[in-house]
Amino acid sequence: MHAFVGSDARSDGQQGRATPLYQDEHGSVSVLHGRFRNGHLLLRLSHQQQFAWLHRFYLLMDRVAAQHKVYKLHGSPHGFLVSAAVAEPDPQHAASLLRFALHLHQTAQKIALPGGQPVDVCMALASGPASSGLLGRASLTYQIVGRCQDEAQELAETQQKAPLVISGSLAERLSPEAQQGLVRLGSLRLRSCPPGEEMAVFGLPRYGDLPLMRPNPAVQA
User: Fold this and answer.
1) Contact call for residues 30 and 84 (beta carbons, < 8 A)
2) Which of these, 127, 110, 98, 82, lies nearest to 204 by C-alpha position?
3) How many CB atoms lie within 10 A of CB 63?
4) CA-wise closest residue to 160 among 103, 199, 121
5) Which end of the chain has fewer CB atoms < 10 Å from its terminal CB, N or C?
6) For the chain, what are the domain ranges?
7) Lowest mean pLDDT among 16-25, 114-123, 181-190, 194-203
8) What CATH code is assigned to 23-210?
9) Burial of 41 (C-beta count, 10 Å sphere; 0-12/13-18/19+)
10) In this structure, are residues 26 and 129 in contact, taking their beta carbons and an 8 Å threshold?
11) What is the 3-state secondary structure (H, E, C) of the chain?
12) Contact between 22 and 136 (Cβ < 8 Å)
């Protein structure tokens, strides 16, 4: 991590509020939101069995992450958040996170859900400037705040077909060679887009025929 900002929780006289315990600023990072699309199958298990399955999955993810320059921010029964260039500098953070996503996509198929079905994970990647740190004073978890985080989260929440979706904000930071390994799936009006603009969305060639799901306009309003 980089330098602490307000690590002694001093009071901000102008705002009347304590500064964050920890805050960092990043000119460019990459984030990945993952969502279990068929995680409802876990409900067939007892809560102890659900916990055991999730523990196995996240142990596997941790082993994959250790082979790449990425950092798991959190994992839950619903999904996970992974970052690059947040915990440590990485000029190639977009490529690092994409390599991790491809590795995890292949490896995750080794863990079956109840009934023997493979886990269906949607992973969405995006890049851009962000703030990170701790919010509040109790029950703290490390957070990332920025447009890239919202892009990845919305794509992961809305896409029902493609297992890997890549925002144009990350694709443009890849090398020309890496870009050639992707196909444009279309463009979407995300809630983080400026008025009248859409975000290009990319994927892997083998999933190029899968449709993009458009976000619900009512949710964006």
Assistant:
1) yes
2) 98
3) 12
4) 121
5) C
6) 23-210
7) 16-25
8) 3.30.70.1230
9) middle
10) yes
11) CCCCCCCCCCEECCCCEECCCCEEEEEEEEEEEEEECCHHHHHHCCHHHHHHHHHHHHHHHHHHHCCCCCEEEEECCCEEEEEECCCCCCCCHHHHHHHHHHHHHHHHHHCECCCCCECCEEEEEEEEEEEEEECCCCCCCEEEECHHHHHHHHHHHHCCCCCEEEEHHHHCCCCHHHHHCCEEEEEECCCCCCCCCCEEEEECHHHCCCCCCCCCHHHHC
12) no
Residues in a beta bridge with 167: 201
Q: What residues pair up with 29 in beta bridges, in sequence order?
A: 128
The token pair at 117 is: 């079905």
* Cβ atoms of residues 34 and 122 within 8 Å: yes
- For residues 200 and 172, the answer to whether their CB atoms sit within 8 Å is no
The per-residue pLDDT for range 86-122, each reduced to its tens digit, is 989 999 999 999 999 999 999 988 888 878 888 999 9
What burial letters (b/e) apply to 157-188, b meaning 16+ CB within 10 Å?
bbbeebbbbbbbbbbebbeeeeeeebeebeeb
* Token pair 């699309």 in the structure block, residue: 37
pLDDT at 6: 39
